[in-house]
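Workshop exercise sheet. Pairs work together: one partner reads the sequence aloud, the other fills in the structure field after running the prediction. Swap roles for the next sheet.
Pair: D.N. / O.F.
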Amino acid sequence: MKQWMQFVSAVLGVFVLLCICTTEASAKTSYIHNAKYSYSYYLDLDMDTSEKKSNFRYEYAENTKEGTMWMISSAMGGSFSYEKQTATGYYEWQTTKSKLLALPVKKNKQWTTINSYDEKETRKIVSTKANAKTPYRTFPNAIKVQIGKASAKHYDYFVEGYGKVLETENGKIKYQLIQRYKD
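Structure field:
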């Protein structure tokens, strides 16, 4: 009986160690925003409205079964957004669940998702060490994702612990992180 208890203890010890290591490894590669902070972004709306550009704030609301819920507020009003990360991707959505980044990250990995306009969209990781320059700071090891064909020159940039920090199209900034605040 004593040998059996030692065996069970050893197996449980290895299991606990594996769980801790797995949790730490996945935490190191999480693209989910850090809930200890709120974030301010610039957004070029590119819409036929009087408000062409907007700044908005992204504040942690709660964890739900759907994902991490964030409150979005701007001069134009408020809304919410969710983000979630699985073993195969980082997702962000308000109404349509879009796989913004395929995981594990590997250069030239390509996938198709549905964008926020409910249209199919092809994405491809083109760099794992891109520079993403934002007003908040420059991120030297951002993941650069091509949206659509290369000729479109449309890119998203992702950083661990920050999610999407920058979006450019034809060299024009469409979305960028302005500031991160400790709440």
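Discussion prompt: Residues 96 and 116 are 6 Å apart (CA to CA). What would you look at next?
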